[in-house]
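User: Fold this; tokens only.

Assistant: Input:
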Amino acid sequence: MSTVALRTVVLKTEARLYVREFGTLFWVLGFPPVLLVILGSIPSFRRVDAGLGVRLIDLYVPVLVMVGQIVVGLQAMPPIITGYRERGILRRMSTTPVRPSALLTAQMGLNGATGLLSALICLTIGRLAFDVQLPRQLGGYLLALLLTSAAALALGALVSARARTARLATAFGMGVFFPSLFSAGLWLPVQSMPHVLREIVVLLPFGAASQAFDQAAAGHWPAWSHLGVLAGWTVVASVAAARWFRWE
């Protein structure tokens, strides 16, 4: 059987296992949309904020788009990969024609696709339920979304590389999860943060993503500085994960 055929078999197997994880699917595909509906149901979120000049719900749609990427990268993927290593599955696979890299590629592909589907659901609900305008600079928005997804998966791969057990992977991921949500603007939109705090946050991947989404939504191409921060974090985290990752 060819390498491509083996990778296809692994992908199909992992996909069947993945869809059985109801809890994971809920937190990725259910939690951001449900939170969006809850926030959009608050009357003050549907009124223009005098200080920001926009409705809060308009700011929270891209935030919840990022939440989906953060959940798949830092909460969904690391325990699965680390669990495979902990149970010796990766070590046993290394002795067969199916290389462990095929499983890792399948996991990253499935989680990345699920995160992008979550983003699509949030954008659709925002548009249909709360009249949130679709991004005017669609190309820039999609590029920022892909880089955000890549950064989240790279951080998840780094957590998977450093954690020896699935329990530690969950703990490490949680340690990065909440700061990531804060930098994405879940508790306080980046646009309304104090100047000094905002300047710090935009150096982090999801703070930069927030600004890139905001610019693309307004019809501007995202600043290359924000895209560069996303790309830089992706490269650094990926290189570090590859350096520290162990199959057993």
